[in-house]
Design brief:
Blueprint: H1 32-56, E1 60-67, H2 73-80, E2 89-93, H3 99-102, H4 108-111, E3 120-124, H5 133-136, H6 138-143, H7 148-151, H8 156-173, E4 176-183, H9 187-197
Parallel strand pairs: 1-3, 1-4, 2-3
Length: about 200
């Protein structure tokens, strides 16, 4: 059975509305046994591909997982990467910036964690936090110690979006392939998840 990803991809330069995208996936298997068999097959294939990736030593692979709290980023990373050899892979979670990270530009902390050629890097959150969380919590922006004239700049956020796009283009030109996953839950599903944990 081949699982199609077309329904879950966002084409380049296309605007989307999350409410119109699927948040629940219908089961691909009719039983747990069938699921376990399919999972085993996919894990073996992923393991084989990782060995080729490591041996070729030409490209780096960066997987970025974004989503609100309780969207399932940790579980998705654990589940999807279960067939990967940990020696060829590194996972980094980006929470609130540390004092050291605040002393550098906003891309510095993630750039330091980029995967080497032949390896897989996984970001649990990323530089996208800068244009999501920091934009909503101006105290974090204030703690970055930027010159006052930059803080007052009307194009601050637009410039940061541009910096992210430029970084990703630079990485691509130098052999890093990036796959981004945005885990979206509807408001009602998020509410149910939070009510179960409280």
């Amino acid at each position: 059975m081949k699982i199609g990803s077309k329904d879950f991809r966002v084409p380049h330069h296309k605007k989307i509305h999350l409410k119109q995208l699927p948040t629940v996936v219908k089961p691909y298997c009719e039983s747990k046994e069938e699921y376990q068999e399919l999972l085993k097959k996919h894990i073996e294939e992923l393991s084989s591909l990782q060995q080729l990736h490591y041996a070729s030593h030409r490209y780096a692979l960066l997987l970025i997982f974004q989503g609100i709290d309780s969207a399932g980023k940790d579980g998705a990373i654990r589940h999807v990467m279960s067939g990967v050899n940990p020696e060829g892979c590194a996972v980094f979670s980006f929470k609130q910036p540390s004092a050291e990270e605040l002393e550098h530009d906003f891309l510095w902390r993630t750039t330091c964690r980029l995967p080497e050629r032949g390896r897989i890097g996984i970001f649990n959150r990323s530089y996208y936090e800068e244009v999501l969380v920091v934009r909503v919590h101006p105290k974090i922006l204030g703690a970055q110690g930027l010159p006052k004239e930059l803080l007052g700049e009307k194009t601050l956020w637009e410039d940061r979006y541009r910096s992210i796009v430029d970084l990703e283009r630079h990485l691509y030109r130098n052999g890093t392939r990036i796959i981004k996953f945005f885990l979206h839950l509807s408001k009602s599903r998020t509410k149910k998840t939070f009510s179960r944990t409280n």
